[in-house]
Amino acid sequence: MDLHATTGMDTRLSVGRRGFLAAGAGAAMAAAGLSAPAYARPARPSRPRAPRARNVIFMVADGMSAGTLTIADSVRRMRDGKASAWCTLWERPGARRTAQKTQCADAFVTDSAAAAAAWGCGFSCNTGVLNVTPDGRQRLPILAHARQCGKATGVVTTTRVTHATPAGFCVNIPHRDLEDAIAEQMLERGFDVMLGGGAKHFPPELIARYPNLKVVRTAEELRAAPPGRLLGIFSRDHIPHVVDRTEKIPTLEAMSAAALDRLAVAPEGFVLQIEGGRVDHAAHDNDAVSLVHEQLEFDRTLEHVMQWMEGRDDTLLIVTTDHGNANPGLTLYGRRGEESLHRLLKGTRSFETMLARIARGRKERELGRVISEVVEEGTGVALETTEVNMLASVLQSQRVMPFRDANNATSVLGSILASTFGVAFTSPNHTSDMVELTSLGPGSDALRPVMHNNEVWQVLVQAMCLEPARLLPGMDQLIRLNRVEGD
Ligand SMILES: [Zn+2]
Asked: Rounded to the nearest whole angstrom, what is the distance from the C-alpha of residue 214 to the centroid of ligand 1?
């Protein structure tokens, strides 16, 4: 019996969440009367093989709750006079929608590593683990598999290239935080295009081992890059939020266009993962301004991909997210709803930047005054004295929010600004909600209305008719796993 093929996640876990986590997935399953391991790959569907997809484009708006998609769509309708690309995609003939379950092997609320690994290898992994199942076995991720079968491969992200979501398609690593090791394995495995942030994990001595790898570090260098293997690392850490970015750094759309141009000439086709990774970070921060701009950037990128696919019938497109996050929603009635979105679009700075400025400013000046100035400069909102005091209190480690998990500066600021921007959040954490998955192209007919994330891998493999994977050298070794928390 497959754990995730049932809809009984809550009834199954009569042992309770605490027992589930403490005892491990195997014990919880035994307690619930289930026999298969929690990380079991679902059985091969009996349906006939779908038409062959030469290419797969897998797009992830990381940590995108339904409210995030809805707000971005509302902004596009209000500002641009047309629906979002994602909502337009739903109207395309042949487009399918799937409600995707996201629980990982050891938790109801997944992190990005376990979620990306479920897509990447078809097995549920523990929180924070990349393509190593709870029994310690290494499972070949989809990009390495596709490369074995002669396809070109690439990842594009606004996070560090070594971050959980791209890594989930590329590497076998027991802990997502081992990003130096992830960088090494990504280069060693020979993927063709890797674009994003995270230069700090690619030191010169590592890059020097790959003389045929072209490395670019600015938008201009990306535009001028010659053909061949390409690593683009445009910031030391994550790529800055859209609202904080300079023109030196390419947009997600520009990186994706460059990757598509390079991969499209591959004789056997390609697999490309594109991640709007900072949608998730803005949601964690309860930062509505950044959230909307990150999602709009993802949507422009999707629009570009849909244009690229126009007239083609050889490419499977999947657009999805790995989990909900903070569940934002526009929540003001009547005219106030639209007016609040107009106010939101005037924001010019992320919480990340504003709170860093407040941290610097408070060393020299009175905290309340610094808060007022920085928030007004970054959002156009003049805070009331009580609101300034709430933010000052949480910055001085006092309890302000009833929900303990939300008692941090970003959630307090997000909650204060909800009065103006109309977007309120439930928490600074991921959520267990089922999430949207939209698909179009050959092979998409295997995607059912409700699926678990670890069933999507099979659809990719079947759509491309990939030959069975061969383990890479060293992959037959078992890896001992320690429990971690992820985000
Ligand atoms: Zn996250």
From this structure: 30
- pLDDT tops 90 at residue 175: yes
The verdict on 7 and 73 lying in the same domain is: no
Of 400, 424, 448, which one is at a domain's C-terminal end? 424
DSSP 368-406: HHHHHHHHHHHHS----HHHHHHHHHHHTT----SSGGG
pLDDT tens readout for residues 465-479: 999 999 999 999 999
Q: Answer yes or no: is 334 within a domain.
A: no
Exposure string over 159-173, b if 16+ CB within 10 A, otherwise e: bbbbbbbbbbbbbbb
Q: How far is the CA of 33 from the centre of ligand 1 (A)?
A: 32
| Residues 126 and 115: beta-carbon distance below 8 Å | no
For the chain, give the number of residues: 487
Instruction: Name residues whose C-beta falls within 8 Å of residue 237's C-beta, 6 or more positions apart in sequence.
Output: 160, 197, 198, 200
What's the domain range around 28? Answer: 1-38
Q: Answer yes or no: is 165 within a domain.
A: yes
Residue 486 pLDDT: 59
Separation of CA 112 and ligand 1 centre (Å): 6
Neighbours of ion ligand 1 (CB under 5 A): 63, 280, 487
Summarised one tens digit per residue, pLDDT across range 328-337 is: 999 999 999 9
